[in-house]
Amino acid sequence: MTTLEILKIAVAIATILTGAVSLFWPLRVKGFTGLDVSGGRGITEIRAVLGGVFIGLGAAVIYLRAPAAYMTLGITYLVIAVVRTISMFIDKSVERSNIISVITEVIFGVILIL
């Protein structure tokens, strides 16, 4: 197994772990994402979208181990980074946590598409 393959699997595992935090501890995402929910509907949304989608994408990459699966997750991270960057300026939310997120998303995206 090459170093790049190990990095790709590590990114997929990090994706699953991010999803797991959102699934099992949805109220803890507020500290980093700024999302504040006041009721069950919002908590369900965090569990389903931030939890379920991230777990599903990461698990698919690990299960399939196909170039197209890595590429799909990589493109997803890069699109998130582009949208986040644009939104940071539109929404006037250029702050440390968003900058860290963009950097992480770009690094993950590049690793996965190589």
SSE arrangement:
Blueprint: H1 3-24, H2 30-33, H3 40-64, H4 67-90, H5 96-113
Helix pairs in contact: 1-3, 4-5
Largest beta-sheet details: none
Helix content: over 70%
How would you describe the oligomerization state of the chains in this entry? single chain
**Structural class of the helices, strands and pairings?**
mainly alpha
Q: What integer is the average pLDDT?
A: 95
Approximately what portion of the residues adopt beta-strand conformation? under 5%
CA gyration radius, whole angstroms: 15 Å
Task: Describe what this molecule looks like in 3D.
This protein has one domain. Helices cover about 80% and strands about 0% of the residues. It is built from five helices and no strands. The chain has helices spanning about 5-25, 30-35, 40-65, 65-90, 95-114. The chain starts with a helix and ends with a helix. The model has no long low-confidence stretch (mean pLDDT about 95).
